[in-house]
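Troubleshooting entry. The earlier prediction with cytidine-5'-monophosphate gave an output that would not parse, so I re-checked the input for stray whitespace and re-submitted. Clean input:
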Amino acid sequence: MSNNNSSQQITRIVLGITGGIAAYKCPDLVRRLKERQFDVRVVMTAAAKEFVTPMALQAVSGFPVHDELFDPEAEAAMGHIDLAKWADIFLIAPASANTLAKLAHGEADNLLTTSVLASKARLIIAPAMNQQMWANEKTQRNIRALETGGALILGPGVGEQACGDVGAGRMLEPLDIAERVESLNEVSGVLAGKRVMITAGPTVEAIDPVRYISNHSSGKMGYALARAAIAAGAEVDLVSGPVNIHTPAGANIFPVKSAKEMLEVVQNRVSDCDIFIGCAAVADYSPVDVSSQKIKKNDEVMTLKLKRNPDILAWVAAQKVRPFVVGFAAESEKLKFYAEKKLNNKKLNMICANDISCEGLGFNSDNNQLLILDDKGQEKNLQIAAKEVLAADIIKEISYRLG
Ligand code: C5P
Protein backbone atom coordinates (compact mmCIF):
# COMPACT_ATOMS: atom_id res chain seq x y z
CA MET A 1 0.00 0.00 0.00
CA SER A 2 0.96 3.59 -0.43
CA ASN A 3 3.70 4.83 1.84
CA ASN A 4 2.26 8.31 2.24
CA ASN A 5 -0.65 9.12 4.51
CA SER A 6 -3.27 9.00 1.80
CA SER A 7 -6.52 7.63 3.20
CA GLN A 8 -7.40 6.02 -0.13
CA GLN A 9 -4.52 3.52 0.10
CA ILE A 10 -3.72 3.79 -3.59
CA THR A 11 -0.80 1.60 -4.56
CA ARG A 12 1.96 3.35 -6.46
CA ILE A 13 3.72 1.47 -9.20
CA VAL A 14 6.83 2.51 -11.03
CA LEU A 15 6.83 0.60 -14.31
CA GLY A 16 10.40 0.12 -15.53
CA ILE A 17 10.57 -0.63 -19.24
CA THR A 18 13.73 -2.11 -20.75
CA GLY A 19 14.77 -2.74 -24.33
CA GLY A 20 12.86 -5.65 -25.81
CA ILE A 21 10.25 -6.02 -28.51
CA ALA A 22 7.58 -6.68 -25.84
CA ALA A 23 7.97 -3.03 -24.80
CA TYR A 24 5.41 -2.19 -27.48
CA LYS A 25 2.79 -3.77 -25.19
CA CYS A 26 3.59 -1.38 -22.33
CA PRO A 27 1.01 1.33 -23.12
CA ASP A 28 -1.60 -1.44 -22.78
CA LEU A 29 0.03 -2.61 -19.53
CA VAL A 30 -0.18 0.94 -18.13
CA ARG A 31 -3.88 1.05 -19.06
CA ARG A 32 -4.55 -2.32 -17.41
CA LEU A 33 -2.79 -1.21 -14.23
CA LYS A 34 -4.68 2.09 -14.16
CA GLU A 35 -8.00 0.26 -14.64
CA ARG A 36 -7.12 -1.52 -11.39
CA GLN A 37 -6.65 1.82 -9.63
CA PHE A 38 -2.87 1.72 -9.46
CA ASP A 39 -1.06 5.05 -9.64
CA VAL A 40 1.56 4.52 -12.36
CA ARG A 41 4.76 6.34 -13.32
CA VAL A 42 7.05 5.14 -16.08
CA VAL A 43 10.83 4.83 -16.23
CA MET A 44 12.47 3.76 -19.49
CA THR A 45 15.96 2.71 -20.42
CA ALA A 46 17.54 4.16 -23.57
CA ALA A 47 17.05 0.82 -25.37
CA ALA A 48 13.35 0.72 -24.47
CA LYS A 49 12.83 3.94 -26.42
CA GLU A 50 13.82 2.05 -29.59
CA PHE A 51 10.66 -0.05 -29.22
CA VAL A 52 8.02 2.31 -27.81
CA THR A 53 7.92 6.09 -27.58
CA PRO A 54 8.00 7.97 -24.28
CA MET A 55 5.17 10.10 -25.73
CA ALA A 56 2.82 7.08 -25.93
CA LEU A 57 3.58 6.18 -22.33
CA GLN A 58 3.18 9.77 -21.16
CA ALA A 59 -0.21 9.85 -22.88
CA VAL A 60 -1.55 6.70 -21.19
CA SER A 61 0.02 7.26 -17.78
CA GLY A 62 -0.82 10.97 -17.73
CA PHE A 63 2.66 11.85 -16.41
CA PRO A 64 6.03 12.66 -17.94
CA VAL A 65 8.19 9.61 -18.50
CA HIS A 66 11.48 9.40 -16.60
CA ASP A 67 14.42 8.35 -18.68
CA GLU A 68 17.52 10.36 -17.80
CA LEU A 69 19.60 9.94 -14.68
CA PHE A 70 21.35 13.28 -15.16
CA ASP A 71 18.52 15.54 -16.28
CA PRO A 72 18.38 18.65 -14.05
CA GLU A 73 14.82 19.45 -15.15
CA ALA A 74 13.47 15.98 -14.40
CA GLU A 75 15.44 15.79 -11.17
CA ALA A 76 13.90 19.10 -10.09
CA ALA A 77 10.39 17.70 -10.72
CA MET A 78 10.86 14.24 -9.17
CA GLY A 79 14.42 13.07 -8.70
CA HIS A 80 15.41 9.44 -8.90
CA ILE A 81 15.58 9.10 -5.11
CA ASP A 82 12.10 10.60 -4.76
CA LEU A 83 10.84 8.18 -7.38
CA ALA A 84 12.44 5.29 -5.51
CA LYS A 85 10.77 6.39 -2.27
CA TRP A 86 7.44 7.09 -3.98
CA ALA A 87 7.03 3.52 -5.26
CA ASP A 88 5.20 0.78 -3.40
CA ILE A 89 5.95 -1.61 -6.25
CA PHE A 90 8.68 -1.56 -8.88
CA LEU A 91 7.44 -3.55 -11.85
CA ILE A 92 10.05 -4.24 -14.52
CA ALA A 93 8.29 -5.29 -17.73
CA PRO A 94 9.69 -6.30 -20.08
CA ALA A 95 12.86 -7.13 -18.16
CA SER A 96 15.74 -7.83 -20.57
CA ALA A 97 18.56 -10.28 -19.79
CA ASN A 98 20.87 -7.26 -19.51
CA THR A 99 18.75 -5.47 -16.92
CA LEU A 100 18.21 -8.72 -14.98
CA ALA A 101 21.97 -9.15 -14.79
CA LYS A 102 22.43 -5.56 -13.60
CA LEU A 103 19.70 -5.86 -10.98
CA ALA A 104 21.06 -9.19 -9.75
CA HIS A 105 24.46 -7.59 -9.20
CA GLY A 106 23.25 -4.29 -7.78
CA GLU A 107 24.52 -2.17 -10.66
CA ALA A 108 23.25 1.36 -10.98
CA ASP A 109 24.24 2.76 -14.36
CA ASN A 110 20.94 4.21 -15.53
CA LEU A 111 17.83 5.74 -14.03
CA LEU A 112 15.95 2.43 -13.82
CA THR A 113 18.66 0.39 -12.11
CA THR A 114 19.59 3.30 -9.83
CA SER A 115 15.98 3.79 -8.73
CA VAL A 116 15.51 0.06 -8.02
CA LEU A 117 18.68 0.00 -5.95
CA ALA A 118 17.55 3.05 -4.01
CA SER A 119 14.06 1.68 -3.36
CA LYS A 120 12.49 -0.44 -0.62
CA ALA A 121 9.53 -1.14 -2.90
CA ARG A 122 8.41 -4.67 -3.74
CA LEU A 123 10.24 -5.76 -6.90
CA ILE A 124 8.19 -7.61 -9.51
CA ILE A 125 9.87 -8.71 -12.72
CA ALA A 126 8.34 -9.90 -16.00
CA PRO A 127 11.28 -11.18 -18.07
CA ALA A 128 11.22 -11.15 -21.87
CA MET A 129 14.01 -12.36 -24.09
CA ASN A 130 15.07 -14.94 -26.65
CA GLN A 131 14.50 -18.48 -25.36
CA GLN A 132 18.21 -19.33 -25.49
CA MET A 133 19.08 -16.23 -23.47
CA TRP A 134 16.42 -17.20 -20.92
CA ALA A 135 17.69 -20.80 -20.74
CA ASN A 136 21.30 -19.63 -20.33
CA GLU A 137 22.62 -20.71 -16.94
CA LYS A 138 23.90 -17.16 -16.32
CA THR A 139 20.40 -15.72 -16.71
CA GLN A 140 18.97 -18.48 -14.54
CA ARG A 141 21.54 -17.71 -11.86
CA ASN A 142 20.59 -14.03 -11.98
CA ILE A 143 16.89 -14.89 -11.70
CA ARG A 144 17.55 -17.13 -8.70
CA ALA A 145 19.60 -14.37 -7.05
CA LEU A 146 16.77 -11.89 -7.57
CA GLU A 147 14.19 -14.35 -6.27
CA THR A 148 16.30 -15.08 -3.22
CA GLY A 149 16.48 -11.35 -2.64
CA GLY A 150 12.67 -11.26 -2.52
CA ALA A 151 11.80 -10.31 -6.10
CA LEU A 152 8.73 -11.89 -7.60
CA ILE A 153 9.17 -13.26 -11.12
CA LEU A 154 6.13 -13.35 -13.42
CA GLY A 155 6.55 -15.74 -16.32
CA PRO A 156 8.04 -15.72 -18.87
CA GLY A 157 5.44 -17.34 -21.09
CA VAL A 158 6.16 -20.07 -23.62
CA GLY A 159 5.44 -19.74 -27.34
CA GLU A 160 6.56 -18.25 -30.62
CA GLN A 161 9.00 -15.38 -30.29
CA ALA A 162 9.52 -12.26 -32.39
CA CYS A 163 12.86 -13.70 -33.59
CA GLY A 164 11.11 -16.85 -34.89
CA ASP A 165 12.32 -19.15 -32.08
CA VAL A 166 9.83 -21.11 -30.03
CA GLY A 167 10.26 -21.57 -26.29
CA ALA A 168 10.17 -19.84 -22.92
CA GLY A 169 10.94 -16.15 -22.98
CA ARG A 170 7.79 -14.26 -24.01
CA MET A 171 6.63 -11.50 -21.70
CA LEU A 172 3.28 -12.41 -20.16
CA GLU A 173 0.34 -10.53 -21.66
CA PRO A 174 -0.40 -7.10 -20.09
CA LEU A 175 -3.75 -8.26 -18.67
CA ASP A 176 -2.12 -11.32 -17.12
CA ILE A 177 0.63 -9.21 -15.52
CA ALA A 178 -1.86 -6.64 -14.21
CA GLU A 179 -4.09 -9.37 -12.70
CA ARG A 180 -1.16 -11.05 -10.98
CA VAL A 181 0.16 -7.77 -9.58
CA GLU A 182 -3.33 -6.90 -8.35
CA SER A 183 -3.82 -10.28 -6.61
CA LEU A 184 -0.49 -10.13 -4.87
CA ASN A 185 -1.05 -6.56 -3.83
CA GLU A 186 -4.46 -7.38 -2.35
CA VAL A 187 -3.04 -10.24 -0.34
CA SER A 188 -0.18 -8.18 1.08
CA GLY A 189 -0.01 -8.51 4.90
CA VAL A 190 -3.28 -10.46 5.39
CA LEU A 191 -1.45 -13.34 7.11
CA ALA A 192 1.15 -11.26 8.96
CA GLY A 193 2.52 -13.22 11.92
CA LYS A 194 0.82 -16.48 10.92
CA ARG A 195 2.53 -19.83 10.41
CA VAL A 196 1.47 -21.81 7.36
CA MET A 197 2.39 -25.34 6.36
CA ILE A 198 1.81 -26.43 2.76
CA THR A 199 2.26 -29.88 1.20
CA ALA A 200 2.97 -29.79 -2.52
CA GLY A 201 3.94 -31.89 -5.53
CA PRO A 202 3.55 -35.66 -5.88
CA THR A 203 4.81 -38.36 -3.58
CA VAL A 204 6.80 -41.22 -5.08
CA GLU A 205 6.48 -44.72 -3.67
CA ALA A 206 9.41 -46.98 -4.46
CA ILE A 207 8.83 -50.43 -6.00
CA ASP A 208 12.54 -51.17 -6.38
CA PRO A 209 15.66 -48.95 -6.74
CA VAL A 210 14.57 -47.71 -10.20
CA ARG A 211 10.77 -47.90 -10.30
CA TYR A 212 8.06 -46.12 -8.43
CA ILE A 213 4.34 -45.33 -8.27
CA SER A 214 3.34 -41.69 -8.36
CA ASN A 215 0.70 -39.16 -9.39
CA HIS A 216 0.70 -36.39 -11.99
CA SER A 217 1.58 -33.19 -10.16
CA SER A 218 3.88 -30.34 -11.15
CA GLY A 219 3.74 -28.72 -7.70
CA LYS A 220 2.86 -25.38 -9.35
CA MET A 221 -0.30 -24.81 -7.28
CA GLY A 222 1.37 -25.61 -3.96
CA TYR A 223 4.39 -23.46 -4.78
CA ALA A 224 2.14 -20.59 -5.91
CA LEU A 225 0.33 -20.91 -2.57
CA ALA A 226 3.65 -20.74 -0.74
CA ARG A 227 4.58 -17.56 -2.65
CA ALA A 228 1.18 -15.99 -1.97
CA ALA A 229 1.36 -16.89 1.74
CA ILE A 230 4.84 -15.34 1.95
CA ALA A 231 3.55 -12.22 0.17
CA ALA A 232 0.75 -12.20 2.74
CA GLY A 233 3.37 -11.98 5.50
CA ALA A 234 3.26 -15.59 6.75
CA GLU A 235 6.12 -17.86 7.81
CA VAL A 236 5.85 -20.79 5.41
CA ASP A 237 6.93 -24.44 5.70
CA LEU A 238 6.75 -26.10 2.30
CA VAL A 239 6.81 -29.91 2.44
CA SER A 240 7.38 -30.96 -1.11
CA GLY A 241 7.61 -34.14 -3.13
CA PRO A 242 10.00 -34.17 -6.13
CA VAL A 243 9.27 -31.27 -8.53
CA ASN A 244 11.13 -29.29 -11.18
CA ILE A 245 10.45 -25.79 -9.96
CA HIS A 246 12.38 -23.34 -7.83
CA THR A 247 11.74 -23.07 -4.14
CA PRO A 248 10.01 -19.75 -3.39
CA ALA A 249 12.38 -17.34 -1.70
CA GLY A 250 11.67 -17.17 2.01
CA ALA A 251 9.99 -20.59 2.32
CA ASN A 252 11.35 -23.24 4.70
CA ILE A 253 11.61 -26.15 2.30
CA PHE A 254 11.35 -29.81 3.38
CA PRO A 255 12.00 -32.09 0.40
CA VAL A 256 10.47 -35.55 0.77
CA LYS A 257 9.79 -38.51 -1.48
CA SER A 258 7.18 -40.87 -0.04
CA ALA A 259 3.88 -40.24 1.73
CA LYS A 260 5.44 -41.74 4.87
CA GLU A 261 8.26 -39.17 4.80
CA MET A 262 5.77 -36.37 4.12
CA LEU A 263 3.66 -37.43 7.10
CA GLU A 264 6.74 -37.53 9.36
CA VAL A 265 7.71 -33.93 8.53
CA VAL A 266 4.10 -32.77 8.99
CA GLN A 267 3.82 -34.57 12.33
CA ASN A 268 7.05 -33.01 13.57
CA ARG A 269 6.26 -29.44 12.60
CA VAL A 270 2.52 -28.87 12.36
CA SER A 271 1.79 -28.30 16.05
CA ASP A 272 2.38 -24.55 16.09
CA CYS A 273 0.91 -23.84 12.65
CA ASP A 274 -2.12 -21.60 12.20
CA ILE A 275 -2.97 -22.92 8.74
CA PHE A 276 -2.35 -26.26 7.03
CA ILE A 277 -2.89 -26.55 3.29
CA GLY A 278 -2.74 -30.07 1.84
CA CYS A 279 -2.01 -29.46 -1.81
CA ALA A 280 0.19 -32.50 -2.46
CA ALA A 281 -0.97 -35.25 -4.79
CA VAL A 282 -0.20 -37.95 -2.24
CA ALA A 283 -0.11 -41.47 -3.66
CA ASP A 284 -3.00 -43.40 -2.17
CA TYR A 285 -1.10 -46.69 -2.07
CA SER A 286 2.49 -47.87 -1.77
CA PRO A 287 4.07 -51.29 -2.37
CA VAL A 288 3.91 -53.66 0.61
CA ASP A 289 7.41 -54.92 -0.17
CA VAL A 290 10.09 -52.71 -1.64
CA SER A 291 12.67 -54.80 -3.44
CA SER A 292 16.26 -53.83 -2.63
CA GLN A 293 17.36 -55.07 -6.08
CA LYS A 294 15.96 -54.16 -9.50
CA ILE A 295 13.09 -56.57 -10.25
CA LYS A 296 13.72 -58.59 -13.44
CA LYS A 297 10.98 -58.74 -16.04
CA ASN A 298 10.74 -62.53 -16.14
CA ASP A 299 6.96 -62.93 -16.13
CA GLU A 300 4.29 -61.77 -18.61
CA VAL A 301 2.05 -60.63 -15.77
CA MET A 302 3.27 -59.04 -12.63
CA THR A 303 1.24 -58.51 -9.48
CA LEU A 304 2.10 -55.73 -7.06
CA LYS A 305 0.67 -55.86 -3.57
CA LEU A 306 -0.15 -52.35 -2.34
CA LYS A 307 -1.12 -50.96 1.04
CA ARG A 308 -3.05 -47.78 1.80
CA ASN A 309 -0.89 -44.75 2.56
CA PRO A 310 -1.59 -42.59 5.59
CA ASP A 311 -3.97 -39.70 4.87
CA ILE A 312 -1.85 -36.72 5.90
CA LEU A 313 -4.61 -34.15 5.63
CA ALA A 314 -7.06 -36.24 7.67
CA TRP A 315 -4.36 -36.82 10.28
CA VAL A 316 -3.83 -33.06 10.73
CA ALA A 317 -7.58 -32.44 10.90
CA ALA A 318 -7.99 -35.18 13.54
CA GLN A 319 -5.65 -33.48 16.03
CA LYS A 320 -7.27 -32.03 19.15
CA VAL A 321 -5.50 -28.73 18.78
CA ARG A 322 -5.44 -28.19 15.06
CA PRO A 323 -4.74 -25.44 12.56
CA PHE A 324 -7.25 -24.14 10.02
CA VAL A 325 -7.20 -27.08 7.60
CA VAL A 326 -7.55 -26.68 3.83
CA GLY A 327 -7.65 -29.57 1.36
CA PHE A 328 -7.73 -29.97 -2.38
CA ALA A 329 -9.86 -32.29 -4.48
CA ALA A 330 -9.12 -33.14 -8.10
CA GLU A 331 -12.24 -34.79 -9.48
CA SER A 332 -13.21 -36.12 -12.91
CA GLU A 333 -17.00 -35.99 -12.28
CA LYS A 334 -19.62 -34.71 -9.76
CA LEU A 335 -17.18 -32.04 -8.57
CA LYS A 336 -19.33 -30.52 -5.84
CA PHE A 337 -20.67 -33.85 -4.56
CA TYR A 338 -17.22 -35.39 -4.07
CA ALA A 339 -15.67 -32.17 -2.75
CA GLU A 340 -18.42 -31.89 -0.11
CA LYS A 341 -17.90 -35.50 0.85
CA LYS A 342 -14.16 -34.93 1.32
CA LEU A 343 -14.75 -31.72 3.26
CA ASN A 344 -17.00 -33.61 5.69
CA ASN A 345 -15.20 -36.96 5.88
CA LYS A 346 -11.79 -35.40 6.42
CA LYS A 347 -13.25 -32.72 8.76
CA LEU A 348 -11.70 -29.85 6.79
CA ASN A 349 -12.40 -26.14 7.25
CA MET A 350 -12.20 -25.49 3.53
CA ILE A 351 -11.71 -27.40 0.29
CA CYS A 352 -10.59 -26.23 -3.17
CA ALA A 353 -11.90 -28.52 -5.89
CA ASN A 354 -11.02 -28.65 -9.56
CA ASP A 355 -12.46 -30.61 -12.44
CA ILE A 356 -9.62 -32.53 -14.07
CA SER A 357 -11.72 -33.25 -17.16
CA CYS A 358 -11.35 -29.57 -18.23
CA GLU A 359 -8.71 -29.57 -20.96
CA GLY A 360 -5.72 -27.26 -20.43
CA LEU A 361 -6.39 -26.81 -16.71
CA GLY A 362 -4.95 -28.39 -13.57
CA PHE A 363 -2.01 -30.84 -13.42
CA ASN A 364 0.90 -29.42 -15.43
CA SER A 365 -0.88 -26.31 -16.63
CA ASP A 366 -0.22 -22.76 -15.39
CA ASN A 367 -3.96 -22.17 -15.09
CA ASN A 368 -6.77 -23.63 -13.08
CA GLN A 369 -10.39 -23.07 -12.05
CA LEU A 370 -11.63 -23.84 -8.55
CA LEU A 371 -14.75 -24.38 -6.53
CA ILE A 372 -14.26 -23.45 -2.88
CA LEU A 373 -16.50 -24.96 -0.20
CA ASP A 374 -16.23 -24.47 3.55
CA ASP A 375 -17.51 -26.05 6.77
CA LYS A 376 -20.08 -23.24 7.18
CA GLY A 377 -21.79 -24.21 3.92
CA GLN A 378 -20.37 -21.29 1.94
CA GLU A 379 -19.50 -21.78 -1.70
CA LYS A 380 -17.41 -19.73 -4.11
CA ASN A 381 -16.33 -20.22 -7.72
CA LEU A 382 -12.90 -18.97 -8.71
CA GLN A 383 -12.93 -18.53 -12.49
CA ILE A 384 -10.11 -19.69 -14.81
CA ALA A 385 -6.94 -17.83 -13.91
CA ALA A 386 -3.21 -18.27 -13.46
CA LYS A 387 -2.30 -20.41 -10.48
CA GLU A 388 -0.60 -17.34 -8.88
CA VAL A 389 -3.88 -15.42 -9.06
CA LEU A 390 -5.87 -18.36 -7.66
CA ALA A 391 -3.29 -18.89 -4.92
CA ALA A 392 -3.67 -15.27 -3.80
CA ASP A 393 -7.46 -15.66 -3.90
CA ILE A 394 -7.26 -18.82 -1.77
CA ILE A 395 -5.04 -17.03 0.76
CA LYS A 396 -7.59 -14.19 0.89
CA GLU A 397 -10.45 -16.68 1.40
CA ILE A 398 -8.51 -18.30 4.25
CA SER A 399 -7.74 -14.93 5.85
CA TYR A 400 -11.46 -13.91 5.80
CA ARG A 401 -12.34 -17.13 7.59
CA LEU A 402 -9.59 -16.76 10.20
CA GLY A 403 -11.01 -13.34 11.02
O1 C5P B 1 -8.84 -38.28 -0.84
P1 C5P B 1 -8.13 -37.46 -1.83
O2 C5P B 1 -6.76 -37.95 -2.13
O3 C5P B 1 -8.87 -37.17 -3.09
O4 C5P B 1 -8.02 -36.02 -1.10
C1 C5P B 1 -7.28 -35.00 -1.60
C2 C5P B 1 -6.75 -34.15 -0.47
O5 C5P B 1 -6.23 -34.94 0.59
C3 C5P B 1 -5.62 -33.26 -0.90
O6 C5P B 1 -5.69 -32.08 -0.15
C4 C5P B 1 -4.39 -34.09 -0.56
O7 C5P B 1 -3.25 -33.28 -0.37
C5 C5P B 1 -4.83 -34.78 0.70
N1 C5P B 1 -4.27 -36.14 0.92
C6 C5P B 1 -3.35 -36.36 1.92
N2 C5P B 1 -2.88 -37.63 2.16
C7 C5P B 1 -3.29 -38.65 1.39
C8 C5P B 1 -4.22 -38.46 0.36
C9 C5P B 1 -4.68 -37.18 0.14
O8 C5P B 1 -2.96 -35.42 2.62
N3 C5P B 1 -2.82 -39.88 1.62
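This one parsed fine. The domain at 195-402 is CATH 3.40.50.10300 (Rossmann fold).
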